[in-house]
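Model the whole thing, not chain by chain.
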Amino acid sequence: MFRRLQTKLTVLYAGLFALALSLVAVSVYLTIANNAQQQVRRELTATGTVFDSVWALRTQRLRDGADLLARDFGFRAAVATRDAPTVESAVTNLRQRMGLDLAFLVGVDGDVVGVDPAKVDIDKLWSALDHEERAQGVFIVDGAPYQLISAPVMSPNLTGWIVFGARLDDREMTALERLSAIRLDAQVFDRRGETWVTTDKTADTGALGAVVATAMRQATAEPARLRTATGDSLVLVKRLMTLDGQTPAALVLRYPMALALAPYQPLMAAVIIAGLIGAALVVAASWALSRDIARPITALEAAARRLRHGEAAHVDVRSSDEIGRLSDSFNLMAAEIREREVRITELALRDAETGLPNHLAMEREIEARMARLAPGQQVVVAALGLDRFTVLRSAIGYALFTQLVREIGARIQVLDPEAVVGRLTTSTLCVISRLTALTDEVVPVVERALVDLAAPVRLGNELVDVHMSNGLAAAEAGGLDAPRLIEQAMIALDQARACGRKVAIFDPVAYGDPAGNLSLMSEMLQGVATGALFLHHQPKLDLRTGAITGVEALVRWNHPARGLLRPDLFVGMAEETGHIRALTDCVIDRAILDQRALRDLGHDLTISINISGRLIDDAEFADRAIEKIAASGARFCFEITETAVIGNPDVALGVLAKLNAAGIPVSIDDYGSGLSSLAYLKQINADELKIDKAFVLSLENDAKDALLVKSTIDLAHSLGLKVTAEGVESREALAMLQMMGCDLAQGYHIAKPMALEALVAFLGEQRLAETSAPAKARRRAR
Amino acid sequence: MKIASILFAVAMLAGSAQAADLTVAVRGPDGKPIPDAVITVYPNGQPTKGPIKFDWPYRVAQQNIQFTPFVLIVPAGAEVSFPNLDKVRHHVYSFSAGNKFELKLYGHEESRTVRLPAVGIAAIGCNIHDQMVGFIKVVDTAYAAKSDANGVAVIHGLPDGPVVAKVWHPYLRAPKNEKTLAVTAVRGAARETATIELRPGGR
């Protein structure tokens, strides 16, 4: 809810105080209001009592006057003798003397003297007077309430009533109001029909009338509360005796609560002002207090955030309380964390043995440099490898070897003080040079530098010779990331060693795309299924008959995206990744179909199939191949690379024996290259030997090669093997091989590997040539 | 006796028919007897021609600050005496129409005489003593009687035949304090009950 501790504390304290103050204010108000109301109630009741006394006094005064007149002999005589003018003058005289509002005579026969008969309800008045001997009470005369007092006129029997009246008007009410201790408002209500009316009209007469009606119905003596738009009032309703006892009238005493509360307003205002000032003080105080509490905590929080981001985090809190101690602890902790971090970083970025920057440090350095590069500039990285390091390390020991690496690092630093030198692997150093572009001109510079570096190193008392190779790679900012750049430099180092050079720049073409190669295998398996893999056949010429007696089947792959792929790209990979068996199965199946197609056209050819060395010790494969070949009646020759047999010689020899038994001839491929040995020839029960094209290609130019070929042919023949020469690319070579007694020849001079349709066409041409002697003679001559 | 014999002779002379007695019992609504009610009977509805004489004295004494009797029946034109039997003096007056008089202060053992000419009422009071009230019923018929303490009034010697009988009381709640009785004819001994309502408080 609150994001800041200070706000939270302030709001909490201020809120509590405000609540307490509100409670105090409310209770003060309620007490005052209650007191005021009680006081008004008492005053109203007291005034009501006073009114009773006033009423009684006035009644008595009027009655006395009325009695006096009623007994006056002359007056009685005038009344009895119906001397109206005399009566009226007597009545008027007394009215004026007594200061009365009204005085008149009512005869027993209903005659009225002294008042306009139209203004008085005579019947009601007469029956009221007749009903009670000394009737008195409120009566409406001319639409206004009057207090009437009657006295009978006896002369000596009843001849009429003298009636005195006091009007209950504003003046009268004002007089009554003055008698009260409080400034109340007095009104007389009387009922006209069902409504209560008063002559003294005010805005809320209607509401007041309703209150009067209720009070009269319930005959309550307690003040009632009247709520109007102008404010609350307390209303005391006193029933007034009416003359006839039927039409009720009421004295209504009313006191506005606002007036009752008025004396307390300064008190209320004081309470509220004191409360507001108090609340403001509490807010200010708690703000200040909470700031003192919150400030160090805020500082600690900010410091902790800085610490998390690896920045310096020191909290400056000088208080000696818990927060101060916490801050001290925090500062200590932060310092220790920084120290440890520095150490860990150092360990993470240093090679423990030599103290040189490690792989990670070099990556960081590369990243840092890349961030500073101008457009078009490159970061150049060199991977400097110690050649034959295992031999060297065994010779001089681990400790000296490490010292040697350190020494070479120091030499590089001397040669190029701006370069950064790190250790990538045990035997490889990494140099990030100051160069900003990697071109071929760099290579001789580096070669010269390597000569200087390779000077013998003195380790203890001995001088040690050092040989080094160097791989170079470069990248622009946004090109490669640092690990890839280092990797490329390492690959370049491998490439240099592979080429037997001292320095090489990374060659992406030679390297290929390892990730792409992996996906290539699954695509190859799809190609096997969809028929994207097919065979090309290279004819083999029988040098004795001049006829094409066989072909070597070479697998081709028409990749859906990359087009026709070279076999050396995917065959070797299939061997490495274990897919060679599926590939070879496919080749066998194709070859069976192709051979059948050729046979149908009348060409009976042996198809030579290359069997990877890795399959030779796969008995299961051999069994299935033999079965398949037997079932289809195919005539195949298995060409096996001699290096292959080494894997599991016992199994391989068994397989070869099985092939022999099945009548499948075995050919030793690429003889003369690699680790060919005579022992090998002895061991393998082969039918054919294929001389590697390296010897054949330079046959006519190199006498030594010619001699080797000749003697190999002779050796093979001596062992009972037929000999095939590969790589026959010239007429001269072919002629020489014929002379040497070679059995079969294969090469571009005879025919390139070709698709089945082209092969059929080629064989047709051959057949035509064979049937014509001159052509045959010509071929012989070649 | 002399007067009685004369009356008797008159009655004999006048009444060609048989004489009848009317007994009227005056009661309140509650059945209580009401004294001092005056019954007047008019044979054939006609007042009596010639002089009328009742066999009671025409006299209202003031005794014990009271008029005695409270109600007196006199024929019109009768002379009524007002002897003062009290030790105090009285100032007797009447404002009644036709019978107005005023007997100013007179003392013990003094008597005054007033002639009351008008048929109707003479309400008499004392100007000194308010509580003193009396009534003189001035009649124009010879057949009138006042109810006794038992509320019974007897009128003797009425001629048989149709009558108009009325009851009057100073406080009777009716116009002129008078009501006509239900009886319309008498023969022999007739009995009648008059039920009347009085104003409370003696007004």
